[in-house]
Amino acid sequence: MNQTENINEQLRDIKPLLEIPDSSYYIYWGLIDLAMLLVAVILFFIAKKLWDNRKVNLAKGYLEAMKKIDWKETKKSAYEATHYARLLATDERRKELFSQLEPLLERYKYKKEVDAVDQDTLNKFNLYVQVADESV
């Protein structure tokens, strides 16, 4: 009996449980939110980079259109060649070649009936396409 009283006295000295502030729940969800935000930012930059790489290079499109010009319809081809050559004439070399090519193409425009394209015009046109192909 003496021994049980002694144990009870010892237990009276034990203080009740203290409440410890626990913020691990909030830290857990905060880390999950941060990870989701980080993944969203990374996905955004990957998607942006893919979108930028997807942009169509207009100069290449113009160059392909110039390469596909069929000179059987001389008048229509002269208009197309002038249009695309003007769009591609962005640097000094191409501007100079375009200034030489344009008067040659003018002979096949603004008339009801035109002759077939002469070899000099075709040579100038092919030179222009070659120079544009090297720089685009």
Write the layout of secondary structure elements.
Layout: H1 2-12, H2 24-54, H3 58-67, H4 74-88, H5 92-106, H6 119-135
Helix pairs in contact: 3-4, 4-5, 5-6
Describe this structure in words.
The protein has about 140 residues and is mostly helical. Helices cover about 75% and strands about 0% of the residues. The protein is rod-shaped.
Low-confidence stretches: none
Give the strand tally.
Answer: 0
Q: How big a fraction of the residues is strand?
A: under 5%
Mean pLDDT reading: 90
Helix percentage range: over 70%
Order of helices and strands: HHHHHH
- What's the tally of helices? 6
Determine the N-to-C terminus distance. 103 Å
> What best-fitting shape do the alpha-carbon axes yield?
rod-shaped
Largest sheet: none
Rg estimate, integer Å: 40 Å
Secondary structure category: mainly alpha
